[in-house]
User: What shape does this take?
Amino acid sequence: MKRLIMYTTIMTLVLVSCYPDGPEYYEELDIVLTNYEKDYDFSSSGTYAMPDSIVKITGDIIAGEDREFIKEPYNKMIIDQIESNMTASGWSRVEDPSTADLVLFPAAWTNTTVYYWYDYWCWYYPWYCGWGYYSYPSISSYTTGTLVMHLIADGEDFVEPLKVWTAAVNGLLSGVQNVDRINRAIDKAFEQSPYLIIN
Assistant: This one.
């Protein structure tokens, strides 16, 4: 029995060593997705409006409760990074949304996934687990955060507001507010969207 356990342990270590190393930093797991309306002529626009606060999408706001916003100083840092990228692409920010060609709406939310499992082999090899037929669940969780940006066109040419550009930045939250990491992801979203460059 001991020999079988030792053999299985060695084989497990050998198999694990065959796979490449996993990610070492949270930012290696970040995902940046962008999409746009292919029929929209971005070069025909030049101004945009944007709120000064990033709203948090929660079940409470959907139920009609008070809105929550990203806390300072993180809110301003993210807004500034978005504005910096828009300016570099040739856009001018205006205060009044009714006079802007487009309106940029940023929002954010978080999701926590909790999962658990039992050692599935214990039912067949009870001695393998070391505690008989009883197995206690292993519980783990992870939290992801998403920043989404929508550029909306509205006006006489549209029956209803049209999303001409969407960017979503998603990644694991490390438990600390890493604005540099978020800013790099925002930059990446604009790098993936060359059609936004109008200058």
